[in-house]
C-alpha cells in the first residue's frame, strides 16, 4: 500500500493505523504490517535509521502491503527531498507552526517528485500552542493530507513532561488543547491524526480523528509482563 492508497482510504473516511517499530529493523517493520498495521513509522528525528535503511524498509514494507512513513529531523528542504528520493511512501514533517512552513513542505515534495508526488502522503505535525493558534491558516494549505497533533512535544511546549508515567493519562490541559486542534482540523474539512494508546483510540475516533500513531512497546511490555507473572506463580 503506497501513499496514494492511504490518501484514498482517508478521503473515504476510513481510519488508518501507523505503528512504530522503535528500532532500525526492516524485518520488524514488515512484520507489523503482516500483523495488520496499515503503515509503519520510520523515525529519523529520534531514531537511528539511515538513508539506506529508509530505502530498504520502504521496499520491504510495500512488498507486504504496507506503507513506510518517514519523519525527518526537520523541515529542511534537502532532507525532505532525500528521504522522498530514497523511497518514502509518506513524509511526516515535525514542528509545522505556520502556513508558510506548510507551503514550503508541499513545494519541496512537488520539486522532489514532479511527476508522481501524488503517490506520497504528506503529513504536517502540529506540536506547539503557536501551531494550534495558526491552524485555521495552516489547514488552508493544499497538498497536506494529514494534520497530526503530536501530544508529546505539545506537552513540553505547555510546560509538562513529554509523556505521562506508563498507564496514566496526559494532563487535562494537554488533552483539551489536542481536542481544540482536532476540532479546527475537522471544521476545515481536513484529516486529523494523533498519537494514541489502545485505550485512548476509541475516544479520539469518536471525535473524528482518522490517522492513529501507535507505539508497539506497550504491547510487548504487557505481553512480557504477563509471561513473567505466570512464571512467578
UniProtKB/TrEMBL annotation:
GO annotations of cellular component type: cytoplasm
Gene3D superfamilies linked to this entry: Phosphoenolpyruvate-binding domains (3.20.20.60)
Domain of life: Bacteria
Domain HpcH/HpaI aldolase/citrate lyase: 25-196
Keywords attached to this entry: Lyase, Metal-binding
Listed SUPFAM superfamilies: Phosphoenolpyruvate/pyruvate domain (SSF51621)
Coiled-coil portions: none
MF GO annotations: aldehyde-lyase activity; metal ion binding
Similarity-based family: Belongs to the HpcH/HpaI aldolase family.
This protein's name: 4-hydroxy-2-oxoheptanedioate aldolase
Species in which this protein is naturally found: Rhizobium multihospitium
Amino acid at each position: 500500500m503506497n501513499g496514494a492508497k492511504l490518501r484514498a482510504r482517508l478521503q473515504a473516511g476510513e481510519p488508518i493505523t501507523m505503528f512504530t517499530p522503535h528500532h532500525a529493523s526492516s524485518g520488524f517493520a514488515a512484520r507489523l504490517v503482516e500483523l495488520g498495521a496499515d503503515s509503519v513509522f520510520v523515525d529519523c528525528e529520534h531514531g537511528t535509521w539511515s538513508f539506506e535503511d529508509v530505502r530498504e524498509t520502504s521496499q520491504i514494507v510495500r512488498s507486504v502491503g504496507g506503507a513506510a512513513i518517514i519523519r525527518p529531523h526537520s523541515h529542511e528542504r534537502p532532507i525532505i527531498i532525500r528521504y522522498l528520493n530514497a523511497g518514502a511512501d509518506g513524509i511526516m514533517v515535525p514542528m509545522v507552526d505556520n502556513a508558510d512552513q506548510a507551503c514550503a513542505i508541499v513545494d519541496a515534495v512537488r520539486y522532489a517528485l514532479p511527476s508522481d508526488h501524488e503517490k506520497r502522503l504528506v503529513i504536517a505535525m502540529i506540536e506547539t500552542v503557536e501551531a494550534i493558534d495558526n491552524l485555521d491558516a495552516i489547514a488552508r494549505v493544499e497538498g497536506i493530507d494529514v494534520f497530526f497533533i503530536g501530544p508529546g512535544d505539545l506537552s513540553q511546549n505547555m510546560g509538562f513532561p513529554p509523556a505521562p508515567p506508563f498507564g496514566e493519562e496526559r494532563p487535562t490541559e494537554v488533552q483539551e488543547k489536542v481536542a481544540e486542534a482536532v476540532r479546527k482540523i475537522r471544521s476545515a474539512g481536513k484529516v486529523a491524526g494523533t498519537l494514541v494508546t489502545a485505550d485512548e483510540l476509541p475516544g479520539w475516533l469518536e471525535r473524528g480523528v482518522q490517522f492513529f500513531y501507535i507505539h508497539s512497546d506497550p504491547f510487548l511490555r504487557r505481553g512480557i509482563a504477563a509471561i513473567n507473572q505466570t512464571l512467578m506463580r
